[in-house]
Write a structure and sequence with these properties.
This protein has helices spanning 27-30, 36-52, 54-60, 68-86, 106-113, 125-141, 177-188, 204-213, 230-240, and strands at 96-100, 117-122, 147-152, 163-168, 191-201, 227-228, 245-254, 257-265. The protein is of the alpha/beta class. Helix 7 (177-188) packs parallel to helix 9 (230-240). Bound molecules: S-adenosylmethionine.
Length: 267
């Protein structure tokens, strides 16, 4: 695995993998808003994070030494995590928070440290196991006020119930704009205060890297990231999630990492 998994310079595989029967469930299981393209994409993402990129992702999100390029990605991701946490209240006691696409669980731990009851869910059961183990070790020496319920599955599942806050760090970036907005529409019906998520801002440099990346062997590619034009995303969100207002936004660029946070707040 030579490319940083969170890099926004990761690329589309040449052929779309087919969803294997039973691998990631059906559209109906995913709940409202899921269509066949979403279900197929979800299967590809699960396969990638649970198998191909597991070790690399585990390392990137740890404190183990990494090369120069990954160090820029790690630094950018840390800034993004603190940006997203900056959109949540300091005191989250009594609040229910969804960490959507939790990976190895760092953001869930931040929210629990503020007292939240966190549901942290990821498609990759292996990443969720890593998260459980890491968090259990940390909590043994530094207990926090909140709690984390780690689960593997689809962050879109209505069975997760209602939340005060939903945070999606670099998990919606793997879906196209239409699916991204459909997921937010579905969460909007179950979110009481705010949703904060990231998207990959469309820019010429990213487009060029996507083109160059097609030269990489398939096994080395992250599942592609879908660059989104901010103006178009804002317009679509204004139409599709009218009960929320667009709030703060912050773009983080650090070497091979570029991602933009956007907040949707209930007035
Ligand atoms: C780039 S990683 C980010 C992980 C974590 N949020 C972080 O920032 O460290 C994207 C994660 O989103 C998860 N993901 C993508 N689509 C998902 C879905 N529909 N349900 C649950 N997890 C999903 C992937 O499995 C992957 O672990």
């Amino acid at each position: 695995m030579s490319m940083p998994p969170s890099s926004l310079r990761s690329l589309p595989p040449e052929g779309a993998a087919r969803l294997r029967p039973g691998e990631a469930g059906s559209a109906a299981q995913a709940g409202s808003g899921a269509d066949a393209a979403y279900v197929q994409r979800r299967g590809e993402i699960e396969d990638y994070f649970d198998r191909t990129a597991l070790k690399a992702w585990e390392q990137l999100t740890s404190t183990a030494p990494v090369g120069r390029i990954r160090a820029t990605v790690r630094a950018g991701r840390e800034r993004m995590r603190s940006t997203l946490m900056g959109c949540l209240p300091q005191d989250l006691r009594g609040a229910r928070v969804l960490d959507a696409g939790c990976g190895t669980g760092a953001l869930a731990l931040d929210a629990a440290a503020r007292g939240a009851e966190v549901v942290a869910i990821d498609l990759s059961p292996s990443l969720v196991n890593v998260a459980r183990e890491r968090v259990a070790q940390l909590l043994a020496s530094h207990p926090v006020a909140g709690r984390i319920d780690f689960r593997s599955g689809d962050m879109l599942s209505p069975q997760l119930g209602g939340f005060d806050y939903v945070v999606a760090m670099d998990s919606l970036i793997h879906y196209d704009e239409a699916d991204m907005v459909r997921v937010l529409e579905s969460w909007a019906q179950r979110t009481r205060s705010a949703m904060v998520f990231t998207f990959a801002p469309r820019n010429p440099a990213l487009a060029a890297m996507r083109a160059v990346g097609r030269l990489f062997p398939r096994a080395n590619r992250a599942p592609w990231i879908e660059p989104v034009a901010e103006k178009s995303l804002r317009a679509r969100l204004t139409r599709s999630v009218p009960q929320f207002e667009l709030g703060r936004t912050q773009r983080i660029s650090s070497g091979f990492y570029t991602s933009q946070a956007l907040e949707l707040v209930r007035p």
